[in-house]
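Journal club prep — side note

Before the paper discussion, L.F. wants everyone to see what a predicted structure for a comparable chain looks like in token form. Sequence:
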Amino acid sequence: MEQSRVSYDDDNPPPFFRPFASLSVFTDNAGKPWGEWEIGGGTWEAYVEDYYGNLHALPADRVEQREHGLKITYPLFFHPPASPSYGFLNFTVKFNYTLEVSSRGPEFYSKYSVSPLSNASWNIFNTNFYFAAPPYSSVTIKIGPVPRDWIIQRAFITPGLGGGTPSVLVMNDEITISGILMGASNTYSGRAEIRVKADNYLETQAAYIRVKWMSVFSSILLENDTVRIEARAASAIPSFPPGVISIRVVGPAGVLFNQSLNQLDQNGVVTGELYLSKAGQYLVGATYKSSDGLRVGMTEAYLNVLRVSVSTDRRIVPLSSPTVTIELASSNISLISSAKFVLTSPNGSTKMVMFEKEGGIFVRNLSFPQTDPYAVGNWSITASILLLNGIERQLLSIGFLVLDDIPPVISNITQQPKEATFMEDVSITCTVTDKGTGVRSVWISYKSGAAGGNVTAKPVGLNTYSVIIPRQHPFATVSYRVYAADNSGNISFSEELAYSVAIPLWISTMLILFLIVIIVLIIWLYSKRRKMPPPPPPEAPPGPIAPPPTTQQPGDNPAAKNDIL
């Protein structure tokens, strides 16, 4: 300190009632000096000189520093207030003090390794660790900022000439190496290696990589699904540092997706739509590196894509054999815990049916009653499966047709009267039943000589039908069959039946009596003609002439001869 006077006595009192300032110099535990000013007598001003000679009033936000090796020097200037009380006061303050501040120290190098299901591992090292510092000082080196979740696993720092064992800790957001004792030397040379365990930012609880189908997250999917992949990197705290997430998807057909996406915040990243065209296993791998390069992650996930099909053993099911087998097959049946289907009948009614697991497939046999008219028609099956992860997936519907191939049954054919005459109609009655869609019509086809026709029967009771065959000519033979058709177009017919047309008994009796009368009359007339006297003989000449004698031959019968005559 330089003033116009450097000493005071009774004749020369100081300009102030007390000393205006005092300067104390101390040393810290490491022996490094530092100064403390106690300033009085008004407001003092402090300035710091930058690299270009400019003075900046303190506090200063930024000052261009002067670097000398590993040290930085700031010239400081203090200006006390000038308030003279006895004459004019001239004084000058000089205070040159070297401040040690943070500066670029030795360079450290780092390598990391990270794999799925494990933490990241960082190796920070410098095999030629060198710096300069005052003798007998204790040097502290800070490396940062680094993630606060880093944990020191092991470290080695070559001790200084002053001995001791340096310590390495993660404090706040810095790796702090302390306790390097310089001893009598002002230079240090050694080796530093620090092993750090860090979060795998893609394996923490807040991180994820997942596959989204529709609004559902699932690792078991179906062939021909369209999905998106979502990923997020996070620390265990959690925090979501910005960085790059690279996603690669490899499936049975090769690389399906390979792209790097930028994570900005907790929303992570989302890929575009991916089409799963082939069944099989897909590998989804993701890596992450933060923008500052100090946070990394890696993870893998597997997708199982199933091919699932539902089929029937026949598309057309005849009512005569009303059974059908439903099968559900999968490329990996072990990933399906159960299966069921909704069975919809032709009239729209539905029923839930469970599959039964047999070997490597799900199977269910169905049978239909032949007497149920609603069984005939188009049936549909809508199957669904329950995956091992608890997600239910519905499959495409298939159908089959139950076809009525059973014709009506004709029985109990009766004819009244059983012996018909030309004066009577004939009534045919029969029973007709149908197991399927029901009887639509019944009719009779008959023939009588060259004539004939079809006559429709009418229902006269439960499953009973009747029809009239009109009267036919006497002595005709009438043949007929009964036909029946159901509502599915099936036609059946009976065996051919026949009857003969006679005349009534009373007419037969009268005809017989008439014939008898005619015969009797003919006989009578004939007999009467035989009894008439012969005509008189002609007159004979005089003298009778005796007829010649006749001789009867054996076997001659005059009566027989008369019969012949």
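L.F.'s comment for the group: The first helix runs from residue 505 to 530. Keep this in mind when we get to the figures.
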